[in-house]
Amino acid sequence: MHDNIKKVVLAYSGGLDTSVILKWLIETYHCEVIAFSADLGQEEELDHLEEKALKTGAKAVYIDDLKETFVKDYVFPAFRANAVYEGQYLLGTSLARPLIAKRQVEIAQIEGADAVSHGATGKGNDQVRFELSYLALNPDIKIIAPWREWDLNSRTSLMEFAEKHGIPVPTTPAKPYSSDRNLLHISYEGGVLEDPWEEPPGDMFILTVSPKDAPEEPETIEITFKQGDPVAINDKQLSPANLLKELNRLGGRHGIGRLDIVENRFVGMKSRGVYETPGGTILRLAHMAIESITMDREVMHFRDSLIPKYSEIIYNGFWFSPEMKLLQDMINNTQINVSGVVRMELYKGNCCVLGRKSDESIYSEAFATFEDDSVYKQKDAEGFIRLNALRLRLQKMMK
Fold first, then answer.
1. Which of the following is catalytic: 19, 37, 94, 97?
2. Is 126 an annotated catalytic residue?
3. pLDDT (tens digit, 9 = 90+) per residue, 132-178?
4. I need a labelling partner for 380 at 20 to 30 A (CA). Which of 188, 258, 295, 326 fits?
5. Which phi and psi (to 5°) does residue 343 adopt?
């Protein structure tokens, strides 16, 4: 417990947990609470949020539209790196947390608050991501993590607390899992998903149709890149957030981007997560396709060797760290010539590259052709092979 807390900025979603936390903070610390919600594209989840927070006792409510910032300054930089955690997860939640934390710390400064608070549990990754970000941005900020302090350790006790304090709770039975949504993805964890053998309920998915129910006709799209970032779909220029939103729509229609994995959390346990990332799935594939004709081989291979480390830095919550800045600067540097157009086909859960072109292309048909050519002397390959074979021959000869 902390002493002398007069004002707290709470990351507030309006769900059961953060509604209870809002009231609990006021009761426990006898302090003012500022509720803050970042609009990162969670759609209807933001309805009536302000009214609800004020009713529960918030002194003031901030609802900030951070969608463009989220995509431009968090999602796109990670996709320049083709970031992917443990080979599959496109980091939808991990990328949102540092932005929410950053804005929270800014509001704490504006409001003269002594502390920040969040609704992440003591078991997950989010507590680490929020708090590493808070402390990197304001080393002296006080942090209140109710899940690590209170004795309300079950959903039943939370419901009872809510009813006792007149906090409106959902009358329908709770969803049998918890979800987190933003413009990059929706994640589902816990509840019925805790048994890794149990299939996710079919009606759970929100962004994507089942590939079985996707259209019978494939759809072809073109994505234009400029220095590693997508800027247009089918020649139509779009802002970062609108572009990702449109890719989500297209991918969702064709059942693209569902993922069911058991991942390794930073705190040490394994956790089953189900994700929908339609736009991100298309985007990563398209980005790799445009890199294939515009990027030097050794630069690409060296960058690729850093993807697991880079992704782990994001997943573990070190967005505002010196190593992240170093890697991001280097990755941005690799993208200077990554411009051009990629043509893709979307069909029943799959997205396939059909073609790629670029003014910056270093692919040469003259060199690659199987037809007769005058630019490459095939005889040169003999010396190249013999020199590379020298140590292999020596090894055998010595035996």
1. 97
2. yes
3. 999 999 999 999 999 999 999 887 899 899 999 999 876 566 677 88
4. 295
5. -105, 130
Structure tokens at 343: 């043509």
Fold match, 7-67+96-174 / 179-295+337-356: no
d(CA 233, CA 129) in angstroms, rounded, equals 33
Residue tagged 């996710």 (tokens): 200
**pTM, rounded to two decimals:** 0.96
Domain boundaries, the chain: 7-67+96-174, 179-295+337-356
Tens digit of pLDDT for each residue in 87-127? 999 999 999 999 999 999 999 999 999 999 999 999 999 99
Which fold, 7-67+96-174?
Rossmann fold (3.40.50)
Residue 258 falls in the annotated catalytic set: no
Q: For domain 179-295+337-356, which CATH number applies: 3.30.420.40, 3.30.470.20, 3.90.1260.10, 1.10.3210.10?
A: 3.90.1260.10
Q: Is 151 a catalytic residue?
A: no
Cβ burial 5-22 (10 Å sphere, 16+ → b, else e): bebbbbbbbbbbbbbbbb
Question: Does 249 qualify as catalytic in the annotation?
Answer: no
Residues ≥6 apart with Cβ < 8 Å to 283:
79, 223, 230, 244, 247
- Alpha-carbon gap, residue 180 to 93, rounded angstroms: 7
Sign of CA dihedral 186, 122, 327, 84: negative
Among 64, 178, 253, 373, the active-site one is: 178
